[in-house]
Amino acid sequence: MKLIDGKKIASEIKQEIAVQVNEIVERGERPPHLAAVLVGHDGGSETYVAFKIKDCGEVGFKSSLIRFEDNVTEDELLAKVNELNNDDNLDGFIVQLPLPKHISEQKIIEAINPKKDVDGFHPENVGRMVIGLPSFVSATPFGIVELLKRYNIETSGKNCVIVGRSNIVGRPLSVLMSQKAVNATVTVAHSRTHNLEEVCRNADILIAAIGVPEFVKGNMVKEGAVVIDVGTTRVKSDKTKSGWKLKGDVLFEEVADKCSYITPVPGGVGPMTRVSLLLNTMLSAKKEIYK
Ligand code: GUN
Predict the structure, then answer these.
(1) Cα 223 to averaged position of ligand 1 atoms, centre (Å)
(2) Cα 99 from chain centroid?
(3) Is the residue at 126 inside a domain?
(4) Are strands 226-229 and 159-163 parallel, antiparallel or unpaired?
(5) CATH number at residue 242
(6) Whose CA is nearest to atom 11 of ligand 1?
(7) Which residue, by CA, sits nearest to atom 3 of ligand 1?
(8) Residue 169 pLDDT grade (very low, low, confident, very high; cuts 50, 70, 90)
(9) What is the pLDDT of residues 33-81, one digit of tens each?
(10) Rounded mean pLDDT of 212-223?
(11) What is the pLDDT of residues 111-158, one digit of tens each?
(12) CA of residue 142 to ligand 1 center, whole Å
């Protein structure tokens, strides 16, 4: 079994991005600029957004953090989105999810200018991706495909089973994995799938993206499979300073011995998700998606 070191690959990609930022700045242009909108004080969202801002600094991007309290109205948030849409000094922005219940996430997502939608959540970007047009692709699927590529993992003709059908991970990933650049034969499994263990055992590449800690057990994995663990559930821990630790969707102890490659949690998919947002922002700055 080989560990897929997402942290190492993400760090290499960050260095590549930093070189490109230097070239841009040396030409006398402004560096790429990402903004993040954060509503409220959810612990997970605070952490993720802080990482996004930190990542920008590390590659030389400009970043802006825009905060609202939980009681912000939908109209106020829509007005901010509109302002960011029209800000020529900004290449892309994200509105961190989840949002408070009184705000329609879908309405906010659809208000974002697709040309600045570096999360790739806008229906226009999702639709363009489905039919193979240049698009911003959501960060986790983008990062996983890049990880497989950089590890030279054969995907063509392979059976890829994705457990989970979320709009952010499972579904877009199923489209990417079936595209001509990847050529996998894709099955999307979910809570209503019959004989899930058997379906998973058929996978050459098994991707767990259900958000249930340690859901994938040893008996669900074929000998020699490639296992990608997207799970990042916070569970209580008395061994860490923060009082919690991350758990993946794969029972690592049982699965690791059976597979050819596996991503650890943390240090696998997570860092690739983070770096993909930087890649999308760079694509936007270079106008490579919408020319
Ligand atoms: N919440 C969890 N993941 C994400 C993400 O990738 N983007 C945004 N905007 N919110 C999230």
Answers:
(1) 33
(2) 18
(3) no
(4) unpaired
(5) 3.40.50.720
(6) 97
(7) 97
(8) very high
(9) 999 999 999 999 999 999 999 999 999 999 999 999 999 999 999 999 9
(10) 98
(11) 999 999 999 999 999 999 999 999 999 999 999 999 999 999 999 999
(12) 14
**Secondary structure element (H or E) that encloses residue 172, with its range:** helix 170-178
What six digits make up the tokens of 171? 């579904």
Query: Please, how many CA atoms are within 13 Å of residue 182, restricted to the half-sphere of its CB?
Result: 24
Atom of ligand 1 nearest to the CA of 139: 6
* Residue 70 is a catalytic residue: no
Of 55, 91, 117, 119, which one is the catalytic site residue?
Answer: 119
pLDDT digits (tens, 9 = 90+) for 96-112: 999 999 999 999 999 99
Active site residue 96: yes
Which sign, positive or negative, has the C-alpha torsion 173, 174, 177, 179?
Answer: negative
Query: Domain range holding 229?
Result: 139-269
To test the pocket of ligand 1, the residue of 51, 97, 103, 230 to mutate (highest count of ligand atoms within 8 Å of its CB) is 97
Is 168 domain-assigned? yes
What is the spatial distance between Cα 55 and Cα 63, in angstroms, rounded to a whole number? 9
- Do 32 and 80 share a domain, yes or no? yes
Write down the pLDDT at residue 194.
98
CA-only gyration radius of the chain, Å: 19
What pLDDT score does 290 carry? 97
Task: Single out the residue of 199, 213, 190 nearest to residue 160, CA to CA.
Answer: 199
pLDDT confidence of residue 154: 98
Please give the Cα distance from 159 to 205 (Å, whole number): 6
Entry pTM: 0.97
Whether 32 contacts 285, CB under 8 Å:
yes
Determine the length of the chain: 291
Number of domains present in the structure of the chain:
2
Do 256 and 219 contact (CB within 8 A), yes or no? no
